[in-house]
Amino acid sequence: MQEIDHSSSGRQLTVEQLLHLKRLEKPAPEFWSSFDRDLQQKQLKALVKPSLWARVRSVLFPRVAVWAPVSAAAGFAAVGFFALPFDADIDLGPPLAHVEEEEAGPVEMAAAAIPADTPSVETAPAVTPRTDAKFVVDALVPDQVAQGGFRTETLPQTFVASSETSAHYVVNAFTAGVPDHVAIPDAVLEF
Amino acid sequence: MHLSRSVTKTIAADPAHARDADSDAVIVGRVQAGDVAAFDGLILKYRERLYAIIYNLTSNREDAADLTQETFIKAFRSINRFKGKSSFFTWIYRIAVNTTYTYLRRNRLRRFFSFDHMHEELAPSEVLEAITAKSNLPREGALKELQERLNEALQNLSLKHRTVVVLFEIEGMSHQEIAEVMNCSVGTVRSRLHYAKQQLQTQLQPYLS
After folding, report:
1. pTM of this prediction?
2. In a designed cystine with B137, which of A94, A127, B120, B141 is the match (CB 3.0 to 4.6 A)?
3. A48 touching B, CB under 8 A?
């Protein structure tokens, strides 16, 4: 009976057998817990962090609203330029009407109706007199339905502006238990 | 990359593949519809396979973990651009391979090994005996030595040759699936595999003779 040769020279391995051993290289089971945790953190960061294009755009074009009409106009001009034959007489139509910008006037504040005997502090006169204005006061009141929440409620008190040219700036105060707004003419802020 | 009809038919003809692709398509549809939590199902399904591919391409477990996570984040960010022309599995494998390529090209000079544990208890006994017999070291030492030589030999291959070997011999993918992932023809996959095995044969000669 022929003896079985167990010597090492009889065992021939193949490249494939050796490569298949690479399948046995695996991380420990606990590796996946930290993997999932890290991935979740990276996903959250990815959601917060803007994409590369968004970052580039914010640097190059900080005010998109300013650039958008400029770039759109440039685009239309470029298309128009190439669409028209070069030797054609180009009629651009009537010139656009000159638009003048108005200077913004000073901020106007309507004067609160205060008692006649209350000393008033004179301030700079308003540029244009206001005839009539009503300010309706909003307030936050507890919401009876949603516990702990608040809702806005329009209160019936209004301040009616006078037709006087002077403006009085009055500080309102909220005092505990007093639903009305109390005007404190002495505490006038001068602007 | 546009998937050719013949490849589509071949993949679709395998019932297991078709079922798998269908279940992925359902989950992808849900994610695209806004159910972002559904993406977790895809992560659970593919994380080990993607990790294994990237680990075998990089021979570094820390890099493999980072790159696998990066792959999922990229896939999640661009999920709405996935139109279903290829299977989700092919799409995400392609992202993984390209992400790894980019990383390896940028870090060509700063490379070092960091191995996962080799579970020798799962190895065929005749292979273990042959390895131990060829080495002067005890079994554990012999396997460690082999692990180093094997990873070195793989790293000495070019990226593309290493990829075909990893995807075919280690991951068990078909030539057609590899061609899809690598965006090349089946013939190119075969020729790269042949050349890569020749190179590995030379480098691993002490273990083969």
Report:
1. 0.61
2. B141
3. no
